[in-house]
Amino acid sequence: MSGPLALPAQSHSALDDALIILRLAFIYALLGLISHWLARGLIELTASSLHIDTQFLLIDALFAGLIIIGSLLAARLLKPAGAMLWLWGPWRPAKGPMIATSLAVLMVLLANPLADWVNLHIQTNLPWPETSSAPRAVTPLLDLPAGRLLLALLITIVWVPLAEELVFRGWLFQGLAATRPGLLVALPSTTLIFTLLHSFYSPGGMLVIALLGLLLGWLRWRYQQLWPCILAHALYNGLTLLLVALT
């Protein structure tokens, strides 16, 4: 039996398209609001008892965990029959891992030069001046104690990529792909939302995120599997952290 949120196998009209987008928007907003509310509650409860580094790590871990659970539930609502196959794609050998690795390395190598070039040519009005002597509330990654460093790496390289890919290249991409325009809607829409959620980055950083989103969306479309996207995202985050640590 299909529930009221279940998606059609394929859209056949403008009404179907509109109903698909409304379903996805409703689930997306609900998932974001609940996750934000619980994460905010956590920081209020722990603000006076935990180091700020630990607070941020706990918030990231909780928020990503809620996104993961919510995404699995969303898949069940949107595709009651065969939800996990629809979300993850068929578990078959593919060239995906090699392509995903190559794309992640390419993006890491291009990221800093591209972001620096864009930032150099775009004037930004920051709310406060950047100075080398400005105090930092958050401890640099490599200065963290061993336990917090391990937790930070786990969240950044595994937990967050998994959560974000379940949403953007998972049920959101698959749902939009069921509309009549298909990829022509799914790829730019998921990339745009993915980029806007990183709007705290510099203009150059946002451009890098947009390119990463396009490549991850292409991976999902090309191989019809989610795990190459997760692999590429995890490698990109991990290699970026390594590059930052070495420079």
N- to C-terminal distance: 56 Å
Fraction of residues in helix: over 70%
* Structural class by secondary-structure content: mainly alpha
Instruction: Indicate the proportion of strand residues.
Output: under 5%
Average pLDDT reading: 85
**Sheet of most strands:** none
* Gross geometry: globular
* Total helical segments: 8
The total of beta strands comes to: 0
- Secondary-structure element pattern, one letter each: HHHHHHHH
* Computed Rg: 19 Å
Which stretches are poorly predicted, pLDDT < 50 over at least 5 residues? 128-136
Topology:
Elements: H1 14-46, H2 52-78, H3 83-88, H4 96-121, H5 146-177, H6 183-196, H7 203-223, H8 227-246
Describe the protein in words.
This protein has 247 residues and is mainly α. It contains eight helices and no strands. Helix 5 runs antiparallel to helix 6 (183-196) and helix 6 packs antiparallel against helix 7 (203-223). The longest helix has 33 residues, at 14-46. The radius of gyration is 19 Å and the shape is globular. The N and C termini lie far apart (56 Å). The relative contact order is 0.15. The model is unreliable at 128-136 (pLDDT under 50).
